[in-house]
Task: structure prediction
Amino acid sequence: MGYAAVKGGLDAILAAEDLVARMRVDDASPWVSEEQLIGRLRLAVDRVQGEGGLASAELAARAIRQAEGDLIEASLLVRSYRSTLPRLGYTVPTPTSEMEAVRRIVPAFREPPGRQLLGRTLDYTERLVDFRDEAAARAALGEPPATPQEIPADSRPGGASAEHALTQPRLAELLAARGLLADRRVEGDPDPVDVTRDPVTTPAPRSARLSVLARGETGALVNLWYQGVMGDRRGAEDITLGEVRVGKLPVTVRHPRTGGPVRVGSVQVTEVEAMSNLNRPDENTAVFDIGYGLVLGHNERKAIAMAVLDIAMHRDRARTGLEQNVIATCDGTDASGFLEHLKLPHYVTFGSQLERKEAMRR
Amino acid sequence: MTIQEQMSAELNSAVPAARSTTDLLDEADRYSFAFLDELSKRAIRRAILSAVAVPGYQVPFASRDMPVARGWGSGGLQITLGIVGPDDVVKVIDQGDDAGVNAANLRRLIQRTTGVTTTLDRREATIVQSRHRIPEEGMPDGQVLVLQVPVPEALRGIERRQSELRRMHAEADYSRMWVALYEDYVRHGAITKSTGYPVLVNGRYVMQTSPIPRWDVPRLHHHEGLALFGAGREKRIYAVPPFTDVVPLTFEDIPFEVERIPGAVCVRCGSTESYLSEIPQQDSPSRWVCSDTDWCDRRTAGQS
Result:
């Protein structure tokens, strides 16, 4: 009877667990520190923070090491830890214009208001495996270039000042001022839905959709977007990105006694605005509409997919059930966990199915 | 040595004896009693109360992420951890078996995060968490039965849209379900739905039965204990309170059938009146054993 043998369960589990721990801890290679993971595998750490729904690089790094690099498993560890923490309060809303951007691109214009800041990105690097050893790689670095702050203000397009880099204008404001942007303000969703405390049913308020997407699995969101491109689902076509920004946002809470706002820290986020060229008969085709993506950490792929899915769901309304499809399927721990549950014993249910097959012949 | 004795020995050797909450917190001061924070447990209990008040209705709840993968009993686990107190005695089974990997895993987790006593003996338990089975004797002492549910929606086979499903339940519009059952019978000469058979609860809501085998379905009718169903991934809790009408959907002239295998007898206890699991043999007819190992053990002990 294999893994559910008469004397199986606990012994087998303990042995498997011991094997995992032994192999993980006892490996001949050096122990990987949280510092290394955060410094050298920062995008993995960021992905786990986002999908785990908890802004703690240290905890994400621990989880990645414990999960042996399986990022969905690491997200599950972070999320289950999160379940032990009481929800004590909510932060004060922060305008993302307060972002200290380390990267900002506006594909929609050559020289947008504010500036294009490429920052730390792999986008334009040659995708060639680097065969140098550490010493050679370090030796090739040379002197560090001047940082953006050291570039004279008047040498940049538009002559923006160094302070300006911290509070970038955004393209959406420009479009709105020219009357080219659909007004998406809605009544009835004043405070963001906390999807970890209130279950989401579709149709869902936009804040709930965005929260679910922000915790979604990167690959799942990319696939859902790609289905809109290659599959028969519409709404993801004709997108131009208005903003792709990475940077730190202040985290502010109300002081329990004075009631005044107190900055308690900051989180790194990726923010995307995706402009959709409205073209349906029932839409105001004289304007653009914008989908919004905001995810924890540096994860542009996910933020872009999120923004496109946000606008695609809005445009779909209830035509194709896109909203339910996205909301119900984008969670990585849900999907992976349920897939892996197929490995559990199923002999009672399978036996019952066998019996029905026999019954049809009787 | 019976299964039960073997398992008891395993439990005692592998897991520290029941400790007080204080000890547990000292050891791992990050976690509160029963893992979840108190506010989350209250939210779960509120959902349970709603579920008990409206039998068979799926109450949405903000399912927490648990330290087990989704689909591995995270819903049942949240119910058990939401209701368990220090004096409870918990039994966990998978396919009726205390030794199944899922059962052993969850039992250990419940024990480690609460310090409560666990047992293999249904009679000693105050809470029984189960995957795919109701214990063979039911819960005659009125204990709580917690069932793990992968798919809570009985109507999903005929309708996928959540908004339409809500309407169908709200209006008790189950006509398409009846048509589906009728078509099944006409095409196959039998209703082929195997486990998770749909039932009408308290004359009102059509409900998905866990998936327990059809064998267990009649035993939910006027069941002595409170049955709680937890679907963690789908974020639903529903309930069958004690002594509630639970009627499998079928037609007047087509009786509801439980599983029956002609000639099947448990090779351990000789039972023909329990749900049996098949053990296929290479060169001879299949053998059968009771799926409820605790019940089988007690019968075996009583007979020998």
In short: The mean pLDDT of chain B is 90. Chain B is about 30% helix and 15% strand. The longest helix of chain B spans residues 38-53.
